């Protein structure tokens, strides 16, 4: 995690005001669909369903550690470890299933340390057949974290050497490896991708077999690059000037780039859609068209007799056939929910509801954890080190000024669930952020809750 500052400034007050206005707008826009939305999201699980899930989902710590082991190396931008971890993440996802479309978003940009090359990793679950009936364009639910680590030179006591492969063992111990920042988050995303793999297959099978039109919603993973500051002068990061000024331009490179890129794609597609709509309206007025196009850019527009999918249904007047192409999962508009993980895995982690328009999802996390604790109490599995809950009911809402990868998305009206503990782990940006200081009871509980949350969210329970 880049920087925490709780000092109130004029800029922040304006930002808060803006966020509250945005929230009010979102509430207003969604009001008409509120009942349907709750049904779609299966808002709250019933207690017996939850108990069933908790009984049947066992955290596989050995498997989780095997993933973490590969990521827990120094991996600052442009280092050997960075390249190694990037390849590991991509290969792991590709090996899972051919339905995971794995790609890199590569770009160069100016930074305070000069021109640098960054690589976001994006993995989207999209089946090969890619042709189903859909209410509208493909929606995505995103799990995100950052895979770069802070440069060791910027950590007190860290080594000035940046390459892990050529160092002696002692020098490697002086390298910052960012266990909570954010190796655990990357590991839990790969772990969840593995655990959700079969369920996602079932989800898409249900979509394809459905007799009625459905709203497609799939899982997408983003591993951001360049979240951490990369400024090369270690003295500047500790200065007051740095805290007040530089973080605005010296961090979040990957998320800023991707949100901007996807916004442009959305705008282009919307322009194309408007153009087509106008054309179609003219045709309808001239009685030339028998099939109405409902979904956005990727929907085929054909006359009734030419439609390749619905040609046997001669009486059909309206079809909605979505042919999924890469541009469908490279938009900012179709993100249904964006969940960002950061600083997961430390002791005494507490998470608060910091995003008003996703409060109902945060309430689900609280409910799942309550059932989890209750079940463990009944079966006497409770660990002494986890006598407090991760997800906090009070306060019901907390304003957060944490700069993180969700910001470029939240300012573009994407619904965000930002899961980062408050306060930060005490080991944050120190050489102690390593395997020895991770709390696996906390990790086990967090990952299990997220797995149950996703199964419920996608209607797979
Ligand atoms: Zn950090």
Automatic annotation (TrEMBL):
Signal peptide: 1-29
Residue ranges annotated for the Peptidase M28 domain, each copy included: 133-449
Pfam families: Peptidase_M28
EC number: 2.3.2.5
InterPro entries listed in its UniProt record: Peptidase_M28, QC/QCL
The keyword Signal is assigned to this record: yes
Transferase as UniProt keyword: yes
Enzyme superclass (EC): transferase
Keywords, in A-Z order: Acyltransferase, Signal, Transferase
Reactions accelerated catalytically: N-terminal L-glutaminyl-[peptide] = N-terminal 5-oxo-L-prolyl-[peptide] + NH4(+)
PANTHER family: GLUTAMINYL-PEPTIDE CYCLOTRANSFERASE (PTHR12283), GLUTAMINYL-PEPTIDE CYCLOTRANSFERASE-RELATED (PTHR12283:SF6)
Family named by the database record: Belongs to the glutaminyl-peptide cyclotransferase family.
Protein name: glutaminyl-peptide cyclotransferase
